[in-house]
Design a protein that fits this description.
The complex is a heterodimer of chains A (about 200) and B (about 625). Chain A is about 65% helix and about 5% strand. By secondary structure, chain A is mostly helical. In chain A, strands 1-2 form a two-stranded antiparallel ribbon. In chain A, strand 1 and strand 2 form a beta hairpin. The radius of gyration of chain A is 18 Å and the shape is globular. Chain A starts with a strand and ends with a helix. By secondary structure, chain B is an alpha+beta fold. Chain B is built from nine helices and 32 strands. In chain B, the strands form eight sheets. In chain B, strands 1-29-28-27-26 form a five-stranded mixed β-sheet, with no helix packed on it. Chain B has a five-stranded antiparallel β-sheet with strand order 17-18-23-25-24, with no helix packed on it. Chain B has a four-stranded antiparallel β-sheet with strand order 2-32-31-30, with no helix packed on it. In chain B, helix 2 runs antiparallel to helix 3. Classes of the chains: A mainly alpha (about 200), B alpha+beta (about 625). Chains A and B meet through helix 1, helix 2, helix 4, helix 5 and helix 7 of A and helix 1 and helix 2 of B.
Chain lengths: ~200, ~625
Amino acid sequence: MTARVSYEEGSPVTHLQDRTLHPSIVADFDDELSRHHRAAFGWALACCRWDRSQAEDVLQTAYLKLVEGRATFDGRAQFRTFLFGLIRRTASEERRRHALRATLSLGMLNGKHEGIPAAGLTPILQEESTRALVAALKQLSARQREVLHLVFYENLTIADAASVIGISIGSARVHYERGKAQLRRILGEDGHHGQ
Amino acid sequence: MDNDDDLRARFEALASEETSAAPPYMSPARVIRVMRWYSPRRLALAGASLAAAMLMLTVGLVWGASTGYASARVAGERERKAIAASTVGVTRQLAALRLELTRTREGLVRLAASQGTVPHASLLAAEAEVDSMTANLVRIERSVSAASASAPEGPVFAILRTMPVRTALAALTCGAEQSKPHAASLQKAIPVVDLPPASVHTTEALGGILGLKQASDGKVLVNDARRRQLKLYDSTLSTFTIVRDSAPGSATSYGRLGTPLIPYLGDSSLITEWTSQTMLLIDGHGRFVRGVDLPAPLRFGYVNSGYTAVDSKGRLIVRGDRPTTPRTFPNGRPSPAELAEHPLYPLYVDSMPILRADLEQRRVDTIGRIARPLMKVTTERSGDGHTTTVFTLDPLQSVDEFAVLSTGSVAIVRGHDYHVDLLQGNDQWTASAKLAFDWKRRTDDDKTRLADSVRGAQNGLLANGYPFAEISFTTGPCDLTGPPPGAVARGGNATARPDTSGATGPRTCTRFEPNLVASALGVQRTPRPPMADLYRAGGIDDFEAPLRPGSTVADLDGNLWILPRTTTLSKKGELVYDVVNAKGELFERVRLPLGRAIAGFAKGGVVYLTSGDLTNGFTLERTKLPSIAQQYRH
């Protein structure tokens, strides 16, 4: 019950000295999370390679980490940047856990491979252009896809994208340029073949 | 940046679609509350599932056990009713039989009242038969009562309701174990038959009987080895004729040494002849038929010094010489000290071979071995120039005995566990089950006491002629007289053999005395001087040995008679024999009349007994096993 709450630049800064959940803290996180929820869901989809069910689990797990204090927002970045980084790490953990489970349960022998389920995008992506964009993003490297998604989708700066991904700004810029060129080339080829 | 705007437009379209499909925001606090509620609920569900499982298991266990109770109860009721029904039927039949016996007894009394119409002996015999039948009836009724008392009275497994399952299972298991018949009860279950007193007996005393043979016409050829006479008695044993006499110089001379009579095929017998070292075949009346030469490997002493019998094919079954092995020394050659302690005598093994000599094919085979642990070979020189060597059997270890059944099988009674090995006609040995015997375990204190007192005990035995000596030689000047007083039941006797080496000078004689004496006969051997260096070389068995040498004999009905060393069935010192049939089964015990020993057998349960002593001579008697014993005989 010794939670200390302070605000800097309009963002909640929480130092949880124990795992006890204070109602005021929860209320503050609710506001922030509800505000970024849709963007967070989009980012979770990207991190989960557009697997909706996995994205929902990752998102909820990230929320819980934040509320329960397993993830600490120290205020050195924007809350949105921190939340995206948390979702990315959580997605990575879930992916590794899923791979481990598949290995232990010999799921790899079943011929299943990670990817977008057939029914995963159908309810979400209705437009042909968005499907083509997702298909093109899948062909990029993870870093390139993440940088482009954060910059064009989430409207973050390259510096914030680098902070979310956990790389330097220079590397993020390189990934941004190369990813953008690659994405254009893919989308152009697709358009050429489509014509 | 135009291109970037194009990409940004694409991403915005993507974001628009995805955010429209985003799930509604759920407060983490609510999720936590759900999880907090979910964990206790999960625990509660797990607990409830466990409780349900336990409940179902309990219900199943009780239900199944109740079903088991019911099934067992029904089975028990059926069994009880069946036993009760059969018991009632048997009881009715026994009651009817008892009524018939009562009427029969009344008839006997009526006949006895009418004097003179029926001989008194017949009435007594009939009354004895009625008494025997009444006794049997009482025994059967007692058995039926015991069976009915052992029948389940109530629900069989009712006790299971009052005890845990594990205890109940243990109780059932132990109950099954307890239901097995105990060895002591088995031993008690073997019927004990009292051999009735002799009906006929000889009127003149005999010196010592060393074999007899009853011919098919009822006449009995008796070998009085001590008086060196073969007597042919009539069937009533009242009169006899001497067919071979001790008087020398005639064709019917017995010879100057006593020798055993070996029953041969049919009415004929074999008797050894020392002078020619051969055997004589005589018919049922003691008349000479022909001479029988022994096969070369078979020594004459084998036949004359121990138990010898004939199987169904006319082959001699005889105990061979004790094998020896050379004594070895650590350095190859004995040192003076070792030589003083262990002279260069060979080592004698603890078993002796059983030989089978085919008189037609002139071949001798070893068919088995018997245990005869040797304690010491002692040589002692006396003051009169005689040297006596005694092969001393170990009285504290078990020995084996052998005999030839009238069926032709060779039986070896193993003393260490008291069972019988049978050599059938196909030359295959078969082992019987262990015979019932009241084993007496020796404690460590008993063993120590025996070891401490063995010398004194040995000296005492020597003073009585030492019946446990296997054989003894006495070498010295030829002043050795004939056989010592007494006779043996079936084995050899003291004999003397002149020195035939042809050397000049004073003649020396060697006398050997095979001591296979049935001590039950009360035969006294020649006392020997105490031998100071008697000692024991073997261990002491954990149990008292059941046999002694010379304690088995075969009758002519295919049975083996074994005289154990100890028995609890002797009332006043009577000898009680264990009778084993041709299958190796102990089926009855026969208690001899007091002061009697077995001298021989004839077919149909006829037993010849001897009574008397060395001073007054021995009387030959004949009796017969009662009918109740006959019906057990195959």
